[in-house]
Amino acid sequence: MKINAKDILEGNIRSLAKAITLIESKKNEHKDAASNLLEELTPHSGKSIRIGISGVPGVGKSTFIEAFGLFLISQGHRVSVLAVDPSSPISGGSILGDKTRMEKLSQNENAYIRPTPTDGSLGGVSKRTKEAIILCESAGFDITLVETVGVGQSEYEVSNMVDFFLVLMVPSAGDELQGIKKGIIEISDLLVINKADGDLLNLAKISQQGYENALHIMSKKSEWVTKVLTCSALHSEGMEEIWKSIKEFQDIQKKNKLWDEKRKQQNLKWFESLLTENLLQHIQSNPVLDLELKKTKQNILNHQSFVPIAVKALLSKVFTDS
Amino acid sequence: MKINAKDILEGNIRSLAKAITLIESKKNEHKDAASNLLEELTPHSGKSIRIGISGVPGVGKSTFIEAFGLFLISQGHRVSVLAVDPSSPISGGSILGDKTRMEKLSQNENAYIRPTPTDGSLGGVSKRTKEAIILCESAGFDITLVETVGVGQSEYEVSNMVDFFLVLMVPSAGDELQGIKKGIIEISDLLVINKADGDLLNLAKISQQGYENALHIMSKKSEWVTKVLTCSALHSEGMEEIWKSIKEFQDIQKKNKLWDEKRKQQNLKWFESLLTENLLQHIQSNPVLDLELKKTKQNILNHQSFVPIAVKALLSKVFTDS
To answer: pLDDT for B45-83, tens place per residue?
Structure first.
């Protein structure tokens, strides 16, 4: 699968799609090509605003991304969407379905939507989301939306890949707020209460007040206090305010030199996870060690060794036989 | 911190608490003591039914665990609760609060509740939950409840440590069901719709029907079809049916030799995550490699090296200098 960096830099979508498939490939013969392509493109990347979008199932993420994406395009931007789905690690399948859930956006020439189902890796997030961001930026998309599901680890990982983290909520009062607050507030830069229309409009306003009070007490970020907005993705209402808030965040962060600093720290995290991954690959690529690894696993299956001891034994071999 | 395996085997709770603190310790001088203690106790472990309990914030997990735990104790069991919270990786703090949220249970002499906040490790789940289960079993607890929050990776990891995975739901109709079904159904052995009381009783019954229909279509497990029950944790209603269903699952799994098989596979997963962790520790414990690691990280911070290439370079040193 030969892909020309030039084609991607010229915004050729088919080449971009191929490139993401290449970097997601687990085949050894693809690894070097992928690594070289990324090295060549990285200097051309980094120019987009990377926005994480999260929220539990049912909150209306697809509708929101369609509405927000189309709004951004109407403002002259080009929008790529990386849809990450950590909620189905066993099948590796995506509950997010395909592009049909964002029909108008996926048909727009200034949008590119890429579903990247998780492969059940420890990461939770697709192992190659970071690389996919680099590729989309190289293809000239100046906004990257990274979508994720659920509460917890996957949010944390996506928040380590983006500049701005937006959490969608459904209107709710009282109890529901309690549990969710702390974890979400720590990583979110903006809470958006969706479905602020029809019968739910009032409840949405009540929730907004509730979250604002909670944030007032709990928020730690000094240079930026997490905001709470409402919107109706269904009627494309509230998109402008959301975008305004993101731009405001960007201005403040850049003024405080925190925008680049955050990305540097994110590169460190990327390094650490790639290192772990490659350490394991090294063992498996060495016939002697791979045999040892297989034997060890068999002993564990036969209850013949205690796991921590088995790990110690294998490690001693890894760092002598190699 | 000297801990006697004998004291734990005799059910001494203070020793158990100390032991869990020891295995959770990141201090090098504690690692061998922890490993030895675990090796000594492992032959005495494995005798409890390990039950994962999950559900999004607001579903009433604390109330449920208090009610279910007290029911199990009334049936003559001893119950340990490991409360895992992956939703707040940044502070490492727990949104679950402390024992006060399960007041009656925590004061019962046949219960032991241990909150284990995540340390933001890739795992999402506390790195030592597996070890904590071994310790609690060694102390004579014949039921282990492992609590987790959220949708996605953390559930997946806890489901890799337990025999039975129970997911709590709130009564809901229509939309909310759609998104959540696939991921949850793949790992859950039992769905329990909580808050089946008062005004929500009817909605609970409707949800139950909705999930049963969904399961009927989607369920894969041939030897066990995920059940759907309702309960009122608030009024301790439905606990007996839930326990009956767990026992039924155990009987079927043991008859099909799947009970032990599952635990063997779980040990393999434990091995893999421990291996990864120790590979990194090896690098940091070698002064030459640790210096190299620090230099590499500095270069990444200075945008002087492309992450995948930096990983390659470091690896080549790891497997020659050592």
So the answer is: 999 999 999 887 778 888 999 999 999 999 999 999 998
Partner residues linked to B79 by β-bridges: B111, B143
Contacts with A314 from chain B: Cβ below 8 Å: 275
Give me the mean pLDDT over the B116-139 stretch. 73
The pLDDT assigned to A95 comes to: 43
CB within 8 Å: B282 and A307 = no
- β-pairing, A79-85 with A111-117? parallel
B55, B96 Cβ separation under 8 angstroms: no
User: Which residues of A fall within a CB distance of 8 Å from B31?
Assistant: none
Lowest mean pLDDT across A112-121, A216-225, A310-319, B120-129: B120-129
Query: Is the minimum CB–CB distance between A311 and chain B shorter than 8 Å?
Result: yes
For residues A285 and B245, which has the higher predicted lDDT (pLDDT)?
Answer: B245
Nearest to A271 among B154, B278, B311 (CB): B311
Which of A179, A273, A274 lies nearest to residue B122, judging by beta carbons? A273
What is the CA angle A163-A166-A167, rounded to 5?
Answer: 145
Note whether B86 contacts A: Cβ–Cβ < 8 A: yes
Question: Does any CB of chain B come closer than 8 Å to the CB of residue A217?
Answer: no
Interaxial angle between packed helices A307-321 and B28-41, expressed in degrees from 0 to 180 and rounded to the nearest 10: 130
Confidence of residue B240 (pLDDT cuts 50, 70, 90): very high
pLDDT over threshold 80, residue B103: yes
Say yes or no for a CB contact (<8 Å) between A151 and B149.
yes
pLDDT at A1 > cutoff 80:
no
> Nearest C-alpha of chain B: how many angstroms from A75?
31
Report which secondary-structure segment, H or E, holds B79: strand B79-85
Most A CBs within 10 A among B304, B311, B318, hence the mutation to make, goes to B311
Q: d(Cα A276, Cα B239) in Å, to the nearest integer?
A: 43
A86–B contact, CB cutoff 8 A: yes
Return the domain boundaries, chain A.
44-256, 267-321
Of B153, B275, B311, which has the smallest distance from its Cβ to A124's Cβ?
B153
- Partner B contacted by A17 (CB < 8 A): no
Nearest to A319 among B150, B273, B282 (CB): B282
The answer to whether domain B44-256 has CATH 3.40.50.300 is yes
Task: Kindly list the distances between the CA atom of residue B310 and the CA atoms of A137, A265, B61, B283, B316, in Å, as whole numbers in the listed order.
Answer: 21, 15, 44, 15, 10
More confident residue, A24 or B120: A24
Q: What does the mean pLDDT of chain B come to?
A: 84
Q: Does the distance separating the beta carbons of B307 and A186 come in below 8 Å?
A: no
Distance from CA of B109 to the nearest CA of A (A): 28
Nearest CA-CA distance, residue B14 and chain A, Å = 24
Contact A166, A188 (CB under 8 A): yes
Least Cα distance to B133 among B161, B167, B157 occurs for B161
What pLDDT, on the 0 to 100 scale, is given for residue B59? Answer: 85
What ipTM, to 2 d.p.? Answer: 0.75
To the nearest 10 degrees (0 to 180), the angle between helices B287-301 and B307-321 is 170
Q: B265: Cβ–Cβ under 8 A, 6 or more apart, which residues?
A: A301
pLDDT of residue A124: 41
Report the distance separating Cα A44 and Cα B54, nearest Å: 43
**pLDDT of the residue at B170:** 85
Contact with chain B for residue A313, Cβ under 8 A: no
